[in-house]
UniProtKB/TrEMBL annotation:
GO terms for molecular function: potassium:chloride symporter activity. The lineage of its organism: Eukaryota, Metazoa, Chordata, Craniata, Vertebrata. It catalyses: K(+)(in) + chloride(in) = K(+)(out) + chloride(out). One of its GO terms (cellular component) is synapse. It is a multi-pass membrane protein. This is Solute carrier family 12 member 7. It comes from Crocodylus porosus. Keywords: Cell membrane, Chloride, Glycoprotein, Ion transport, Membrane, Phosphoprotein, Potassium, Potassium transport, Symport, Transmembrane, Transmembrane helix, Transport. It holds the Pfam family SLC12. Residues 98-271, 389-668 form the Amino acid permease/ SLC12A domain. Belongs to the SLC12A transporter family. K/Cl co-transporter subfamily.
């Protein structure tokens, strides 16, 4: 059956076979249509290049349009003409789009300038180990990167995009900035390599600073700084003017790299039958620099006369035969050996082992005999070849590793590829395999062809200042010199082109606020400000002026980036997220974990202090993004990992009951909302944050009356308001809004169902109901009583804060004050725990804790005080202890006495409250409130099974601690006007000190506590009810004015 549209036939070639093509940003339908005639042909790397042109012409066309710039660069130059827009279409395949850019980025300055020196210093075996470790690290990273890159689109940003979308904005931003710094310092390293080639091998006379009195190294560093600053400014101008000029030179730079590699292998083959004539001069076993003499001999015969050579005059004080010469020069002969004996000479055996040395030591051929003399001779100022730095294995690893970076070149340009999900893995892994073979084979070939002292001669002083690797090349050393010069110059330009765009990608994501300005640029999108910052950071590397010092720095940043690429792949694989479906199947989490471990090991092998500095930088960026960065939801793996960890922890928590030592209040905060869905008492959240200090579980809940279908919009608005207030008050927790036909049922649902598994609340915090006694509000008192009953049934503690709006805000700081605890019934220590937790917060930190307890007629108050002090000592709490002796109530208030035994009053109120609570009688509750407020103003009252009420007046102080404005607790039985230890209330008021009596101080009532005691029941210091009974007591907080 034909499902084609009108006007098409089944044979229409534009329609195809009826199978819909995959819609992908990597695939251009026009290109696919052109390549139908070549389907089924196995052309290896070139099969993607096959379009309507023959293979050769197609390849030449692609090479003509070759660019090594990252994705997004050519788009900025798209304003020229339609031809340019056509060229930038994603039509590159594996060979042109991935393989060649990776090859060009990997093969670079270290190969040409340092690989021979590494082989000579570390020996063939240890050099092989260094290269193998680094190549294995990049290969494992490439496997992980291929899995991530084929799991979706990878736009501009490359590794930053992969890490950020896999591990989240915090990791992505931290590692992205580290990768940016690594790319920037790589530009500095390439520029330093360019200058070294220019001043050492091409034009030494161009040096501005000349070596005087042995200051050659310092002069070279100054030349590096001056020339480097000029070149970085020139390159920045070129990149600013337009990357199209860099793009046009890309093929030239690539050709230089390829021709240089070919010249090296050609030179190795030539040494087998015709080694080049590069002779080196040795004095004893010490290598001599050929810069200042031409004849390798002490004497020479001219017209049958023996005359001294320039070498003689360098070691002796005159040209005469009887001159005084250096002792080592006099004792040893001058010999001349072949510097490049050839691949069949057997020199490989001599170069197998390492020859590490200290800074300033002479390069020696240890196989030759040497006479050192009786005294230690001075070598400074003599024409020897010296080592410029101290060498050891780990240092060589740090210098070499930058030579294997550049594996991200293919993934950075996935949008320019025809089939990125096929090209990136194939091209990257093939490029790493090729370069690994080149590096490993060069190590063996260098060791087999070149004399060891030449290999250890970093700057080629023993071979007339020639580039060591150039002496091996065919047909001329200048092939390597010129090729390496343009290669390093082009690599520096590419770093200055790619690094600003990486910074621009990070800035435009908005995860680092202070980098927002670097997301802007010219009208066509060129990152001008990012380019300026990149040039400034690159200048720091230029000022270091030593390639060997800059290389370990960028090694740290690249290794950290590769480590997190492996981590991202391992996390995604282990989590098995539904979206993790990479087309690249040849990966495993063990390979990613091995790659991550190898990267971490190499970081500390290269330089442990650089590794720590890089980790500190990444950690600071991570924490900054976490606290100040924009919230991004990218479906990253860290979020999935957090969910898995939370699930595992919840299952573990639910498996066992919490121990007393691990107990802390897990609070459910019940908020009241007004008609605008705003919180009525914001200070309740302030108090919660002060009590919790970000620890434990906090659930902020509220109830909207109605039906959810009608209230869904109001629920969203209420959640936004509550969450914004939680952020302002720094309350870390969860928000839960419930819609219920009645407020009573909604609160009941919250108490029953809030939380998840073992992470459920054990304490309910609410504000004191303000209108529960009013006749026009018939449900307020009933809802409050029901809340008390339901928290009791749920075996949860209930905290009720009275005068909550008077509680201190988080910004307030008490310079002094008290937190008074009226401890009437033993509660297992929760009343002691609450003020301790409060004092951890800055608001209450300077307040003191005071414990008041009540002694009845038959109690020993002195012993009770000692026992309570010992109890606090075992609890490791610091508090003042006072025992209040309550023989009877004889209290003066507004001219009348109320006298009654405490036990009779307690029994009466107990019965009244039980009746009110059980039968939900409103009249009874109103009558109870009137009794408590009229008969006992200002007194805390403990009622079994009920609420602890305190009138809006100051609770009195113990008799032993009379304070201004406070009435002692125990009134005198003989006088109605005076107290035993303090002035009367009338006296205090007349002196102006009793103004605090009418102030509604903040109070916190603990209505229920189910804490188990922290000590055996037999050691309970007071004959109070056991913790299993419902606890009724209160804690009162005040600030001394």
């Amino acid at each position: 059956m034909w499902w084609g549209g009108p006007g098409h036939s089944p044979a229409d070639p534009e329609v195809g076979d009826g199978v819909p093509r995959e819609s992908s940003p990597f695939i251009t339908n026009a290109d696919m249509d052109k390549g139908i005639i070549y389907e089924g042909k196995n052309m290896a790397l070139f099969e993607e290049e096959m379009d309507s042109n023959p293979m050769v012409s197609s390849l030449l066309n692609k090479l003509a349009n070759y660019t090594n710039l990252t994705q997004g660069v050519i788009e900025h130059e798209a304003d020229e003409d339609s031809k340019r827009r056509e060229i930038k279409a994603p039509r590159m395949g594996t060979f042109i789009g991935v393989y060649l850019p990776c090859l060009q980025n990997i093969l670079g300055v270290i190969l040409f300038l340092r690989l021979t020196w590494i082989v000579g210093t570390a020996g063939v075996l240890e050099s092989f180990i260094i290269v193998f470790m680094c190549c294995a690290c990049t290969m494992l990273t490439a496997i992980s990167m291929s899995a991530i890159a084929t799991n979706g689109v990878v736009p501009a940003g490359g590794s930053y995009y992969m890490i950020s979308r896999s591990l989240g904005p915090e990791f992505g931003g931290a590692v992205g900035l580290c990768f940016y710094l690594g790319t920037t310092f790589a530009g500095a390293m390439y520029i330093l390599g360019t200058i070294e080639i220019l001043l050492t091998y091409i034009s030494p006379s161009a040096a501005i600073f000349k070596s005087e009195d042995g200051g050659e190294a310092e002069a070279m560093l100054n030349n590096m700084r001056v020339y480097g600053t000029c070149i970085i400014a020139l390159m920045a101008i070129v990149v600013f003017v337009g990357v199209k000029y860099v793009n046009k030179l890309a093929l030239v730079f690539l050709a230089c790299v390829i021709l240089s590699i070919i010249a090296i292998y050609a030179g190795v083959i030539k040494t087998a039958f015709d080694p080049p004539d590069f002779r080196i001069c040795l004095l004893g076993n010490r290598t001599l620099s050929r810069r200042n003499f031409d004849t390798c001999a002490k004497f020479t015969k001219i017209d049958n006369k023996t005359e001294t050579t320039r070498l003689w005059r360098l070691f002796c004080d005159s040209a005469l035969l009887n001159a005084t010469c250096d002792e080592y020069f006099s004792l040893n002969n001058v010999t001349e050996i072949q510097g490049i004996p050839g691949v069949s000479s057997g020199v490989l055996i001599d170069n197998l082992w390492s020859t590490y040395s200290d800074k300033g030591s002479v390069v020696e051929k240890r196989e030759l005999p040497s006479l050192t003399g009786t005294e230690e001779t001075k070598v400074a100022g003599l024409p020897y070849v010296f080592t410029d730095i101290m060498t050891f294995f780990t240092m060589l690893v740090g210098i070499y590793f930058p030579s294997v970076t550049g594996i991200m070149a293919g993934s950075n340009r996935s949008g320019d590829l025809k089939d990125a999900q096929k090209s990136i893995p194939t091209g990257t892994i093939l490029a790493i395999s090729t370069t690994s073979f080149i590096y490993l084979s060069c190590i063996v070939l260098f060791g087999a062809c070149i004399e060891g002292v030449i290999l250890r001669d970093k700057f080629g002083e023993a071979v007339n200042g020639n580039l060591v690797i150039g002496t091996l090349a065919w047909p001329s050393p200048w092939v390597i010199v010129i090729g390496s010069f343009f290669s390093t110059c082009g690599a520096g330009l590419q770093s200055l082109t790619g690094a600003p765009r990486l910074l621009q990608a990070i800035s435009r994501d908005g995860i680092v606020p202070f980098l927002h300005v670097f997301g802007h640029g010219k009208a066509n999108g060129e990152p001008t400000w990012a380019l300026l910052l990149t040039a400034c950071i690159c200048e720091i590397g230029i000022l270091i002026a030593s390639l060997d010092s800059v290389a370990p720095i960028l090694s740290m940043f690249f290794l950290m980036c590769y480590m997190f690429v492996n981590l991202a792949c391992a996390v995604q694989t282990l989590l098995r997220t539904p979206n993790w479906r990479p087309r690249f199947k040849f990966y495993h989490w063990t390979l990613s974990f091995l790659g991550m471990s190898l990267c971490l090991a190499l970081m500390f092998i290269c330089s442990w202090y650089y590794a720590l500095i890089a980790m500190v930088i990444a950690g600071c960026i991570y924490k900054y993004i976490e606290y100040r960065g924009a919230e991004k939801e990218w479906g990253d793996g860290i979020r999935g990992l957090s969910l898995n960890a939370a699930r595992y922890a919840l299952l573990r928590v639910e498996a066992g009951h919490p121990h007393t030592k691990n107990w802390r209040p897990q609070v459910l905060v019940l908020l009241n909302l007004d008609s605008e869905q705003l919180v009525k008492h914001p200070r309740l959240l302030s108090f919660t944050s002060q009590l919790k200090a970000g620890k434990g579980l906090t659930i902020v809940g509220s109830v909207l009356q109605g039906i959810y279908l009608d209230k869904c919009v109001e629920v969203q608005k209420a959640e936004e308001n509550v969450k914004s207030l939680m952020a302002i008050e720094k309350t870390k927790g969860f928000c839960q809004i419930v819609v219920s036909p009645s407020l009573r049922d909604g609160v009941s649902h919250l108490i029953q169902s809030a939380g998840l598994g073992g992470m459920k609340h054990n304490t309910v915090l609410m504000a004191w109901p303000q209108s529960w006694k009013l006749t026009d509000n018939p449900f307020s008192w009933k809802n409050f009583v029901d809340t008390v009953r339901e928290t009791t049934a749920a075996q949860q503690a209930l905290l009720v804060a009275k005068n909550i709006d008077l509680f201190p805000a988080n910004q307030e700081r008490f310079s002094e004050g008290n937190i008074d605890v009226w401890w009437i019934v033993h509660d297992g220590g929760m009343l002691m725990l609450l003020p301790f937790l409060l004092r951890q917060h800055k608001v209450w930190r300077k307040c003191k804790m005071r414990i008041f307890t009540v002694a009845q007629m038959d109690d020993n108050s002195i012993q009770m005080k000692k026992d309570l002090q010992m109890f606090l000592y075992h609890l490791r709490l610091n508090a003042e202890v006072e025992v209040v002796e309550m023989v009877s109530y004889k209290f003066l208030h507004n001219g009348f006495y109320f006298t009654s035994l405490f036990s009779n009053l307690l029994t009466t109120v107990q019965k009244l409250i039980r009746f009110c609570v059980i039968y939900e009688d409103k009249t009874c509750c109103q009558h109870l409130a009137a009794v408590l407020e009229t008969l006992l103003p200002g007194q805390p009252l403990v009622c079994p099974g009920a609420v602890c009420l305190v009138q809006d007046q100051l609770p009195p102080c113990p008799p032993s601690l009379p304070m201004p404005g406070l009435l002692p607790l125990q009134p005198s039985p003989a006088s109605a006007d005076l107290t035993p230890d303090g002035p009367s209330r009338a006296t205090l008021a007349s002196e102006g000190q009793g103004t605090g009596y009418g102030r509604p101080w903040p109070k916190l009532f603990l209505l229920h506590s189910l804490l188990q005691p922290a000590y055996p029941a037999s050691h309970t210091p007071y004959p109070f009810p056991t913790p299993s009974t419902t606890l009724r007591t209160c804690i009162w907080m005040k600030q001394q004015q």
